[in-house]
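Section 3.1 - Work completed
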Amino acid sequence: MEVLRYAAFTDDPRGGNPAGVVLDAGDLDDARMLAVAADLGYSETAFLTPRGGDRFGVRYFSPLAEVPFCGHATIATGVAWAERHGAGEMLLDTASGEVRVRTARAAESTSATLTSVPPRVVGLDDADFARLLAALRWSRDDLDGALPPRVAYAGAWHPVLAVATRARLADLDYDFASLQGLMAERDWTTVQLVHRTGGTTFDVRNPFPPGGIVEDPATGAAAAALGGYLRELGAVTLPATLHLRQGDDLGRPSRITVDVPAEPGTGISVTGTAVTIS
C-alpha cells in the first residue's frame, strides 16, 4: 500500500489543504483505512478502488471517523491519478452518490474539477442557530443580513453563516467541545463561515471539529454547498463563477473556483490544482 501526500487547492506544498491518497485500497477494511488516516493526521484521506474503465469506488476518512464526501481529497485523488495514468474523466461512487471528476495537465500543474451531487438547502433551526452562535462566541450583530443562515448540502451538510466584516471572520476562537457536540448531533461535516468581498468573491473559513481538526485550510465540499446556497437564494447572477479564498488565516493559502450553473438542482463544479508534499 502506497500512501500519497498532496496539498489541494494550491500550487505550493506549503499552502492548500493536505490530503492522503491511496490509489488502490481494494484490500483494506474499515479499521485499516481509519488507522491510516489517523496515522497520517490530515483532515481527510481518500481511499480509491478501481472498478474498471473510468469508474472507481472511493471512501474518505478523517483521523476520527469516515465522512461521506470530501472535496479537497477528491481534487488530490484526481490529480494523483492523472499524473500516473493520464488526464481524462473519472466517475467516483461516493457514499453520497456519483461524483464526476475531470482532470487536465498543463506544463507546470495538474488540475481537477469535481461536479457534486445535486445540492440541497434547508433552514437552520432557531435552537441550533442559537447554539451555533454560542459555540462560535458570535452574536447576531456580527452577521451579514443579506445572506441568511442556512444548512447546505452538496455531498455533506454544512451550516452557512455569513459575517459582515473580515475582522470578525479573522477573529475565530470557538468552543471546540460545544461545536463538536452540536455537529455530531446534526451530522454536519464543517461549518462554512463566509465574508463576501465582491459580487462573486468570498473569504471563507471552515471549523472541522468532527474530524478532530480545529479548522480546514480548504474545503471543496463546503465550497460546492456554498454554490448551491447562493443559487437557491438568488444571491448571484447565474451562471456564476465564484472565487473563494481560504486558509490565509492559517498560513496555508488556498484558492477554490466554483462554477454554479443556472439550472436548478444541477451539480456544482469545484476546480483546483494539487501538488505533492515531500
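Second construct:
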Amino acid sequence: MKRVIFGVVVVALVALVWFTAANHKVTANSSASNLPVYSSDGKLVLPANYREWVFLTSGFGMNYSTGGNHAPMFTNVFVSPEAYQGFKSNGKWPDKSIFVVEIYSPASHGSINKAGHYQDTFAGLDVEVKDSSRPKEWNYYVFHPAATSADALGDGACANCHGANGAVEHTFVQFYPTLLDFSIEKGLIKPTVNVPLNQSRFLKVLDAGGWEKAEQAYREDRKKNPDSDLLNERALNNTGYQLLAENKTAEAISVFTLVTKDYPKSVNAYDSLGDAYAAAGQAEPAIVASEKELALAQNDSSLTADQKKQFTELARKRIAAMKH
C-alpha cells in the first residue's frame, strides 16, 4: 500500500514539475510578446497581440486643438499588462511600457442602428513607447492600416503635447477613467495639469467632508473650469438621484437646491427638487418647488407640448399628494 501511494506521489510530483515549467514558459513567452521589438533598421514592430492587453478607454472625435477640420474618429486605447500592473504597484510607468491607440471611422445607419455611432473601418494605429534603451525615452509611432512596423516620429506635436499635457509622465491619464482616480488619490498628477471635478470625485468630497466642503469644491471648480461639462446640470441631476437611491435625502436636497440656483429657469431642476422634498416627507417645500415647476413649464418656449404636459402632470400630482 505504501509503495502504491509513493508511486502516485511521484507521478503527481512529476506532473506538477512539468505543469509549472510549462506554465512558466507560457508566462515568459507572453511577457516577452508584450515588450517593444525593433527591426534591424530601428523600426518598432507592431505588437500583434495588443487586443489582448488592458483596455484603458475609448474616445470619439477628440481634438486637442481648436483649429483644423478633422473628421471625428473613434479611438481605443490599450496598454501592455505588465505596464498596467507596474503602474498600479509603483505609481510609475515601467520601462518598456507600450500604449496602442486603435483608430476607427464612425458609422451611423448601418444594419439595425437608427441613432448614435458605432466603430466601422480600421484607420490605423498610434503607438507610444517608454524605452530607456532608445535615444529618447518616450517615442511615438504612426502605423497605417497595413503597416507592420514604423519609424519613430521626431520632435514635434506628439512629443511636445504629451510632455506638456500628459497628466502622469507622458501619458494622458486624465482620459483613462480606470486610472484617473487612482492617480489623484496617490498624488501622481503633475501640478501643471488641471483635472476638473466630476460626479464621482464630487461624491467622494461630499462623503468625506459633508455638503459645505462639496459645495466649496464645486464653486472652485466652476471658477477654474468654466467650460467643463463634467458637473453640468445633467450630471448634478444624476448625482442628486443617485443620492436619493442611497437614502441620502438631505444631501440630495442640497444638490438639487444648488441646481436651481445655477439653473433658475430649469423646469427639470425644480421637478427634481420637488421629488427630493417629497421623498423626505417635507410637504411645504415640495409644494413650493412644484408650483415653481408649474410656472416655468407654462412659460418655457424650449419645451415641446409633450414635455410641458409631462412636467405639469408631475407637479400637480405631487402637489395633490403633499396636501393630503
